[in-house]
Amino acid sequence: MTRSTTPAGLPIMDAASRNRLLKDVLKGVSRSFYLTLRVLPKNLREPVGLAYLLARTADTISDQRAEFSGARLDDLLVFRGQVEGSADLGVLRGLAARSLEGASPEEQAMFGSMVESFSLLQALDEADREQVRWVVTTLTLGMEMDLKVFPTGGSGGLAALSSAADLDHYTYLVAGCVGEFWTKITTAHDSSLSKWDVGKMSELGVRFGKALQLTNILRDIPGDLRNGRCYIPEDELKAAGLTPADLLDPANESRARAVLVPWMQTALGHFQAAEEYLLAVPRRSVRLRLACLWPLLLGLATLARLASSGSWLDPESTVKVSRRWVYRMMLMSLPAVVSNSLLRRWIKNLRRQTERSV
Asked: Which is nearest to 148 in space by CA: 214, 242, 84, 228?
């Protein structure tokens, strides 16, 4: 039996195909986000899940073939062009075929489903499709910035972002924009948010995303440095008498604190905005609250562990919350999510853990 196609030759997605894409394929490349997706109200899962899957596909393309940064950038730009305009079946198949080499089985399933992902993008209603296109395009700008600013992985080179403005812009491109997207897509689909000031909430959402990204950047400093990437602004390091290369030596931890502690405090400030965002979600919207609460708690707990570790530059130190902690957090969140006072207390406790350490 011949499968129906669109005028562009893309397959028309039936219910079974959509289910496979947004369950099996997406789950394979993001177990943590998959939990958030499943707790979302049903009418939000398709646009949010597809946005994540397309962004993850682009990110994997930009991370592949480390010795060929030019090829990665070329393929990333091709991918962006497919997102922004009318997708071409031949281009998508060629891009998917080039991306399969060296990919994990889960990533191979993702690339093997690239055509279906673009079919689903075309099948979204116009408003959702434009929001997904916008956020994925913006995210790819952050990936492009990574490829242009930093040397090829394994080359032995090391580069840094120039200033705090560059770091702030980068965190917007790779995470802050997701908060803006999340706000616009949820207000479009959830009538409980009808009284939201979308502009104000989008600003809070941007800071929510920046909080999570800054936490990741601070946690991953040792590994990023050894891949040639220093996200800590070079001008701030210079003012502290340091170079990006100095951060490779854990013995410089105490000197680096003068630069790193203010960024932890910046992250805490963004998490305050994230708390305001969470509590603005009506208590009756339990699923939407949980989808905001889980990443907030996970991010704050990670920042607290990092702050107390005293090993911010040690490549042998691994800072992360345990799987047991995550499951316990999710269980405890079920009764707490409808109580603003309980949530404030929980968040305040995590914030204080970081404040005491810095």
From this structure: 228
